[in-house]
Amino acid sequence: QHGERSGQHSTFGSRVSCVLQPAVAASSRVRVLYRTLFYSTSAMMATSGISLRSASKAAVVLNARRAVSRKSLRCVASASGPRKVPTTAVPVRSSKVTRTQASAAEVAATAQDVQKLSELMTWNETKRIQTQVSPVAEDTTTIRCLDWDRDRFDIEFGLQEGTTYNSYIIRGEKVALVDASHEKFRQLYMDTLSGEIDPSTIDYIIVSHTEPDHSGLVGAVLDLCPDATVVGSKVCLQFLSNLIHKPFKQMLVKNDDKLDLGNGHELTFIMAPNLHWPDTIFTFDAKTQCMFTCDAYGMHYCSDEVFDPEADKVLGHYAFYYDCLMKPNARSVVTAMRKCKDLDVQTICTGHGPLLHSLAPEFMEKYQSWSNDAMAKSPTSCVVFYTSGYGFAEQLTQALEAGIAKTGVEVDQVDLATADTQDVIEAVAANDGIVVLAPPFPSKMADHVDTVVAAVGAKKKVLVCESYGGKDEPVDSLNAAFMNQKAQIPMMPLKVKEEPTEATYHQYEESGTDLGQALVTKKKVADVKGAMTADTAKALGKISGGLYVVTAAQGNAKSGMIASWVSQASFEPLGFTVAVAKDRAIESYMHVGDQFVLNCLPEDGYQPIMKHFLTRFAPGADRFEGVKWSPSSFGAPVLDESAAHMECKVVSRMEAADHWIVYSEVVNGQVHCEKRTATHTRMVGTYY
Question: How far, in Å, CA of 404 to CA of 420, rounded?
Answer without folding.
Answer: 25
